[in-house]
Amino acid sequence: MLASRVAVAAPVDRAAAFGRLLDRGLDGHYRLAAVILGDPNEAEDAVHDAALVAWRRFGGLREPERFDAWFGRILVNGCRDRLRARRRRPVIRALPGLGDLDRGLAIADETVAVADRDALARAFAALEPDQVVVIVLRFYRDLPVADIADRLQIPEGTVKSRLHHAMRRLRRAIDDPGTVR
Predict the structure, then answer these.
(1) pLDDT digits over 15-35, tens only?
(2) Alpha helices, DSSP H, located in the chain
(3) Gap between the terminal Cα atoms of the chain
(4) 92-181 topology per CATH
(5) How far apart are the C-alpha atoms of 3 and 19, rounded to whole Å?
(6) Do 135 and 83 form a contact (C-beta atoms < 8 A)?
């Protein structure tokens, strides 16, 4: 009798625990996906798909206190797969946070701010999917190299290399937009 009550209660407890863990960082995960993919609608789809994958694998999560990093890894891998599947480069309409910088500019400087945003978007579009992921995790999420390596399950040296090459490509794309590729 006790075993049947536990068997019935376990799925409810599992679902409630998963829901609490997912809700805790859902906004941040969405913003991360939006920056990586450059499309809010596709970001919603990516977070939804990652939540489904995480739900299916939730029973195998050994350390629930590391749920956010675990879910983040699932999400980033899903975003990377989406970027690869596009067979074209992502177009970033606007990067979150740039609007805050723009508010302090004079009206005459708004044209410069728009041009800078466009240049950054074009430069971002020149990056490989793996480079987009490390740039976003490093500079948007402000993660140290070791944490990025842990999330992506790659060596720290690979993260550093991708960051180096991505930054070089970004600089080149911004300085001379016609030379990137």
Answers:
(1) 888 888 888 888 999 999 999
(2) 2-37, 40-57, 67-86, 98-103, 110-125, 129-135, 145-152, 156-175
(3) 67
(4) Arc Repressor Mutant, subunit A (1.10.10)
(5) 24
(6) no
Domain 1-88 grouped into CATH 1.20.1050.90: no
Answer for the pair 36, 76: CB distance below 8 angstroms, yes or no: yes
Cβ neighbour number for residue 115 with a 10 Å cutoff: 10
Placement of tokens 């009798």 in the chain: 1
Side chain identity at 99, as an amino acid letter? G
* Stretch 105-112: mean pLDDT: 55
Average pLDDT in the chain: 79
- Would the pTM count as exceeding 0.70? no
Q: Express each pLDDT in 116-155 by its tens digit.
A: 777 788 888 888 889 999 999 998 888 999 999 998 899 9
Question: For residues 122 and 82, what is the distance between their CA atoms, to the nearest angstrom?
Answer: 19
